[in-house]
Amino acid sequence: MPRHSYLDHSGPIAFAHRGGTSAAPENSLRAFADAVSLGYQYLETDVHATSDGVLVAFHDNDLERTCGEKRAIATSTWEELTSARIDGTDPIPLLDDLLDEFPEAKFNIDCKADSALEPLIKKLRQRDCLSRVCIG
Questions:
Q1: Which element (helix H / strand E) includes 17?
Q2: CA torsion angle for 59, 117, 104, 62 (degrees, to 10)?
Q3: CA-based Rg of the chain, rounded to a whole angstrom?
Q4: pTM given for the model
Q5: pLDDT digit of tens for each residue in the chain (136 aa)?
Q6: Active site residue 17
Q7: Known catalytic residue: 48?
């Protein structure tokens, strides 16, 4: 059985979980940029779909813990989420932002809601990036 190219790595694989840094808010573009600058090649993120089908990189079902807003992602449009700031500083990134910003990185994507799975698969196929993604 052929091995998936995602696993083409000798030795242990270190993942930057949600960006893996205390220097920037979790799941922010800055956190992932910091991880890549430290040499991480594998990035872990979480994905939810908004009510209008936009895929966002965010861990929780709602914005309360990290953005201080009692707003669920699944019942919000992308436009409604654009003003939210993670830890008061960083915007919520789109999955597209991460894939564009870090084209050499491999991603472990934790699909947090069943409603996000079909749009996620569709997006990854459209972008032809299944070779650098593992869905968990």
A1: strand 15-17
A2: -20
A3: 15
A4: 0.92
A5: 566 777 777 888 899 999 987 889 999 999 999 999 999 999 999 999 999 999 999 999 999 999 999 999 999 999 999 999 999 999 999 999 999 999 999 999 999 999 999 999 999 999 999 999 999 8
A6: yes
A7: no
Give residue 3's pLDDT: 67
Rounded Cα distance between 3 and 54, Å, is 31
Look up residue 113 and give its DSSP letter. S
Structure tokens at 68: 């201080």
15 contacts 105 by C-beta, under 8 angstroms? no
- Tell me how far apart the alpha carbons of residues 6 and 45 are, in angstroms, rounded to a whole number: 16
* 67/103 Cα distance (integer angstroms): 27
Enter the tokens of residue 59. Answer: 């861990």
User: Alpha-carbon distance 123 to 106, whole Å?
Assistant: 16
What is the secondary structure of 21-87 as a DSSP string? -SSS-TTSHHHHHHHHHTT--EEEEEEEE-TTS-EEE-SSSBSHHHHS---BSTTS-HHHHTT-EET
Q: Which pLDDT belongs to residue 21?
A: 76
